[in-house]
Amino acid sequence: MYKKYIKRFIDIYISLLFMPLVLLTSILVGIFIKLEDNGKIFYTSNRLGQYQKIFKMYKFRSMKEKAVDYRNEDGSTFNSKNDPRVTKIGGFIRKTSIDEIPQLINVLKGDMSLVGPRPDTTEALNIYNNTEINKLNVKPGITGYNQAYFRNSIQQSEKFQNDVFYVNNLSFIMDTKIIFKTFKSIIIRENINNENGASYE
Hints:
mainly alpha; two-stranded antiparallel sheet; 7 helices; 4 strands; 42% helix; 10% strand
């Protein structure tokens, strides 16, 4: 009942409630992005959704335009507090997770949920094993089990395992715990950077 109906109702209600925040941050962050390098405000990327459906995920742009795509050995994105590709405003919105706010539009459209496994790039299909691909049985989320409890402190393989754990144990109580833990990790800035095992984003 929760997984099929209530979760989607909550997603729509919360995303509609916060649409004014999306508009306000788009104006404020957009001004700083334009002042810094006059580039695009939003970054879009093709991601894997539920049942392997591909969708465009929205973020505020935090890197210089046409930045080189560095990867760790496990295929995950290189992520460092000293990354020269990240703009000044980009560093701030990453630390505070403000760059993720436009994904409320994805939630409203039905591409994503407030809580779920983080959406991987399409290349991830080449590295999932027979169990890990089950993470695609639910909609990806703005935040999830990994982001709440580990963020960028664990390797990609562990993240995939945790995603499957979430899918197999999805409940209202788990989603609520993840949301509260996410806010806590953002406030105290836990595990933001890791040059050896960042997220596959």
